[in-house]
Write a structure and sequence with these properties.
The structure is a homodecamer of 160-residue chains.
Chain A: H1 17-28, H2 32-39, H3 43-50, H4 58-68, H5 72-79, H6 96-120, E1 123-138, E2 144-156
Antiparallel strand pairs in A: 1-2
Helix pairs in contact in A: 2-3, 4-5
């Protein structure tokens, strides 16, 4: 299976270390799975780090630097800084894979809201106190299924 | 906990049976959880039925009609027909709960894509051969967490 | 000073009880300040209730019903239900007063982010665990100043 | 706590001195709080200066130049000139922290208007004769809260 | 010269008294000039009143009611209330006359800013502490010219 | 008072001579007022020339070249050519000063139309056969006011 | 050949007389060509009258009323009033016939500008002092061609 | 009369030969009229060639190369290739001259459609089997008029 | 298999006969396939007739009227008139089935263009001189495939 | 017939190998048809590869490298990686050829949906398990027709 690379037409929207990380990852032949295991983090979180959408801890930087052979000082300052999130791609998404996720929100948004409200009350599922993961399942008929889990803290609206 | 109702300002975007179903549900004091159990379907799917975003089987109609006391003929034709999906609300969502889901796609879209591609190859997670559910968890510190599971068939791009 | 009324061209975007509440408020000649005092809530919260942007407790409904002379059953179900927020007006706002608030976000958004990040770390100020109030000040030179306070819980991004 | 830095993908929208100031700030290890104290200005105002969204006085330039070690002539002309405001980021904001502020305007805009109108009459809160500050509070339960204060002169609509 | 009337396709965007006022004006055969003289206000201000874009004083309502033969109580509450401004038409304008004004802002916006900044400093011309009028001039060659005057208080940006 | 300069983030939208003219103007320490006097044109027209929004005559180029010390041949061809108007900034404007002008069109557009139509008939005020100027007034109470005059030829719709 | 009728889904965007005129035209079986001949005006102008995009003279109303059998008083006031132009349909057009005209502007806009500028100087072709007509031609090979002529007064930009 | 030149801020949207052609045209002092005569094509078509909106024949390239002194091989491949049309400028147009054409489509679109339908049936005027020209007329009163002719093949909708 | 019905939330965008036709079709229990066979037209064309996106011949109306039991005079005038196309739904489509077609244009648009240009030259495939059909195929492995054929006349760009 | 080339104004949206492939193709004088035959793939698929909208197999890269004389290592990594689809051009398309395909979706989208639903049930035609081809036909009257075939797997909505 080939590795995910960074499309050159995306780099102007991303922090400069994104390109360095993707290049080093390709050269070392490492999957996000392998890097995630090394960092003790979720794969999606690690990919988000590569796209500049998440903050790295000092330990993350140490491990990434060691594993990928990227000089610590080339990435530490920006990666442990404060990400400017939300700019990796256009919305609505034009990429078919990402569009499917958008379509789920479009089609089931109010259904989620109704179910959430009845189960939890008036509030939201946080996208900040939040984690997510991706899993692969094989059904009995041999077909392959993708499973995304979204887990967020429930925040009730304050009464004031 | 109060029940989800249908905001009157939404009805013009939805099929006419939506209002009837929500009204009957309120009158009977039924949650989506109770209705879902009665129908043997997921809560989100049942809420989607109420918003006109999913197709009902003949058996669903029978059970809904019985449980809610809505005349079968008032809802059967349209509910077992072909939903005109995607119109329950605006995109980007203005409702905070639904916006959080949109934000997850915005922030993690390319991270999901990278992880999916490395795990599954070039393709998409289907939003059609797809199911979803909502669960409630209580953490050790007593805090409440919402968990959404998205499960879709993996579809590789055809080679042609 | 006249009372705030509901522009008839807005009603189609709001729940049906909005009009009833505004009408009763006008007839009783009550300010939001008076109603807020009666309910023990903030003025902005009470106005948000009137626009269908916040949830009422059972006690709120009791007090509102009594104070305004609106039959409890005409408003209780929807007001204690789950608001469909975010639809009171267009964004960007066309109303000059509301536009000024939007402009503050536009002009100072990244400045707030930089200051927040340095003071609090990587996270957001919640708009859900949140309260707000409006105050009036008179400066020494006799000029009048408006003060808005926004107070939200700080939510650090989860590490996962 | 790390310092706020300037995402390289933002620089094309900002005046050229922004990058120099952020770089010097990082090298000197200075927070906006420290710089604000040195300048006798609010933190948000100083961050706005760095993003090119506010005008510097001659004294500001002197102090900034001294504190940060940036040659006066490299920044004086543009910083004491007339900012071209409003271009630091897209609207609606895609950054989660900034989006929350936008959401407050979206959800409570008409509530603010109604309360303002009843308290002050027909007019607006100026975003020009205006100041703002950010504070950090710790609640009794140890949780952290962010407080933004917006203070603007009240401008009644002229009668003509 | 015919009188300005209200296009029926606009009424849903305007307060309900707009239609009554325009109808009465037509029936009485009154121009905005005549009404403005009667009210002692500018023509543009009076037309703005008719479109629900400006606030009427009690005296304005008395005079309008008398002049137009509209019952005072049919218009007083809403007209002396707080206008929900900015919704008379779409932006960018599709009406050619209004588009020309928009085009002036588009073409000369930065030129105005540069000249204002040099003449007045860092600030804005208020659109709230503001008046405007329209005049008709005949040039020596007999051609007709329209003159719009915009007069707004200069508001310097606060230093904070 | 500082001089207006050209924000570097704007140059890609403007003709190449804009930067040269602004630079020379700064170096010579000249205001638009001084240059306008030298050219015998209105300040706004001269600023529009600098932003590439108006056409220069041969005499304008001679005088500008002499006054600013910019070689004639560096600017003559493009400045006496045909401007590609309307691209100096985004619409709706994000700059607060320019937004206020836009807001005037948004709020008073239909009021202007009604008054114009009654005074002039069915037509438009030209934005081409057009001039504009900016003036500064000091009111009796010492406050400063900005006055913009827009003067355009009245063009009646042709009957065909 | 059938007659042009008014799609019922358009009527809410048009003045109320539009429907009456189209209905009467259908009942009388009259083409725009016939009506235009009767009024001594161009076909496009007459169709524009029907869509509320042009002003009728008193004589037009007399002739229309007579020819179509519509009571004069039902249409006179609005038709001789001031049209609120530009709202017959969305832009970009979704109707294929109208889209082709839009596409011509999109593809050849700058080519027209370059040719106009060289032939006429710096200015515009007026869309107000303007007439247009549609003609039908049959080529030698029997194919049918449509010819639109646009004729507008040339307006040079004023020097000020 | 000056020649049309290429605004440098447009070049990134156009094929690379556009700049070369405009530069050579300026150096030779040739109008589009002169070039059109040399090529035996319409002026608008030639200007469209310069903007990369039309395809050149081999003979066009020969003649252009000779007349303008541009090496054949620098322009032949791209100019005789397949234009990527529609990108010369934004829509809606911000350039006043081009906007007027857009406004004609906006105001008269449905009028054209109604007249076309009655004269030709259900179909469109092709923008592909299409030619256009610009002419200059002087009216009796000495005023100057621009005339655009659009001639397109009539294409009836297929019945299937 | 249920029949396609008309979602009530769509009717305001469609001509009034759409609802009548869909209702009659449901009552008679007729598929588009059966109706198409009766009319001797393609299924897609017939469905387009029902949505008001295509013109009916007199014979179509006769046959439809007879088959569906809808009075001829209730539908003849509008159905044989000139459709106002392109308004059945929003673009980009929110309905998943229709979005997939849009996505094909988005993903393969330039690939189609390149292949068309090399095979046919500089031109377009007409969407007017055009037909389309839908077929169902069963693959060897029992899976079901949908096949859409688009057939349009090739129109080369005119040389002028 | 000339070959399709890559417009230089598009390259920033495409992966870097696109330009290399198009250049080599031009130099070798190869059509997409010839390349497709060499690769044993459809022409549209090969053009999509060139635009970075499809994934290449190792064998594709070998053959392309050999046929076009492009070093294998310059293109292998990115071409066998995971395309970032959907960014070749704007939507709605401005290119006339691509717009016609968009218009077909706009005009016939709901007709396709109705026919698909009746023939296949509630689901979609996949754009992923999908192939497409372009053919050229000559009608009896000598006219040229383009035929596009879209073939996608039918995916029924899951019941959950």
């Amino acid at each position: 299976m080939p590795l995910a690379t960074l499309d050159s037409s995306m780099t102007s929207r991303l922090p400069s270390y994104s390109q360095s990380l993707f290049d080093a990852k390709s050269q070392k032949g490492l999957t996000f799975e392998a890097i995630a295991q090394h960092l003790g983090r979720e794969e999606v979180a690690v990919a988000a780090l590569f796209y500049g959408q998440a903050q790295a801890s000092e330990a993350d930087v140490d491990k990434l630097s060691g594993l990928l052979g990227v000089p610590r000082e080339a990435i530490a300052a920006q990666m442990t800084g404060f990400p400017d999130r939300g700019r990796a791609g256009p919305m609505p998404p034009v990429e078919p894979l990402i569009y499917r996720l958008y379509e789920i929100v479009q089609n089931y948004g109010y259904a989620y809201k109704a179910v959430f409200n009845e189960k939890f009350g008036d509030g939201i599922m946080s996208a900040i106190c939040f984690s997510t993961k991706v899993e692969k399942e094989t059904a009995e008929d041999g077909s392959t299924w993708a499973v995304i889990t979204l887990r967020g803290k429930w925040l009730p609206f304050s009464r004031f």
